[in-house]
């Protein structure tokens, strides 16, 4: 269970996230929607502790995440994997090595640090990475440089890398914002597969309302840093959509990616 209690982040006088309280059971796939500047990215970055809360508390299975420091904090960031809009791959390295980077936080001790710096990995770790690439239909690209792949392929590499962390929770910050409709569909189906097959909690920030409805069993809408809707997709009525976005639903940009049969 992930719990956010009165979580707040201020930048000067402005509250980017303002008193958010949520309880997210293990295994949910949650879409977070809202206009640009609503606080979606700041919220996810606080959960991962990339951004420090001004006040409030983050709990996961009874552990106070907001109190973690040092090695314990690094352990949390391993269990709480994050993927980004811009993929964050090492473009000059091959795909396999990029995926293997997900194992670095699993290595204690000074020798492990040296091996990490030299990007040395065991046969077992390489097998794990190849299995992950095969799962996301990327095994044939394992030895290609990351910068030779399409955007959709790079985002799937980022998901494979996250899975090598063996996380309990996966955060995705606008993972399809820079992708064409076909690649957006493939990436969303990969996230849904991780949620369903591995039982991971997935929190995904989404620009497109239709995508959130299709793939997420729970939708949270934010406005001015606050949660203004929390419920199933079918409860997100046209009236509520207009209240969230400030325009009628039909005026929102149409979305074209369609999921394959579940």
TrEMBL record:
Protein name: Phosphonate ABC transporter ATP-binding protein
PANTHER family: AMINO ACID IMPORT ATP-BINDING PROTEIN, PHOSPHONATES IMPORT ATP-BINDING PROTEIN PHNC
Residue ranges occupied by any ABC transporter domain in the UniProt entry: 2-249
Residue ranges crossing the lipid bilayer per the database entry: none
An MF annotation (GO) of this entry: ATP binding
Cited InterPro entries: AAA+_ATPase, ABC_transporter-like_ATP-bd, ABC_transporter-like_CS, ABC_transpr_PhnC, MetN_ABC_transporter-like, P-loop_NTPase
Protein's gene: phnC
Pfam families referenced in this protein's UniProt entry, alphabetically: ABC_tran
């Amino acid at each position: 269970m992930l719990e956010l209690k009165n979580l707040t982040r201020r930048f000067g006088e402005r509250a980017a996230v303002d008193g958010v309280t949520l309880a997210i059971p293990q295994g949910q796939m949650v879409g977070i929607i809202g206009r640009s500047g609503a606080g979606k990215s700041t919220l996810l970055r606080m959960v991962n502790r990339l951004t420090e809360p001004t006040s409030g508390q983050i709990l996961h299975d009874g552990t106070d995440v907001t109190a973690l420091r040092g090695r314990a904090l690094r352990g949390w960031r391993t269990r709480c994997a994050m993927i980004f809009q811009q993929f964050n791959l090492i473009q000059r390295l091959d795909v396999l090595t990029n995926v293997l980077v997900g194992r670095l936080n699993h290595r204690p001790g000074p020798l492990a640090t040296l091996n990490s710096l030299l990007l040395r990995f065991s046969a077992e770790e390489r097998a794990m990475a190849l299995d992950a690439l095969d799962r996301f239909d990327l095994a044939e690209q394992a030895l290609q440089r990351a910068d030779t792949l399409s955007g959709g392929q790079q985002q799937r590499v980022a998901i494979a890398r996250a899975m090598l962390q063996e996380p309990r929770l996966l955060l995705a910050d606008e993972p399809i914002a820079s992708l064409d409709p076909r690649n957006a569909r493939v990436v969303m189906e990969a996230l849904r597969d991780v949620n369903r097959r591995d039982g991971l909690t997935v929190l995904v920030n989404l620009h497109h309302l239709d995508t959130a409805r299709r793939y997420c069993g729970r939708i949270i809408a934010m406005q001015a840093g606050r949660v203004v809707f929390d419920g199933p997709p079918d409860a997100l009525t046209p009236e509520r959509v207009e209240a969230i976005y400030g325009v009628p639903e039909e005026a929102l940009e149409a979305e074209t990616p369609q999921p394959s049969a579940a």
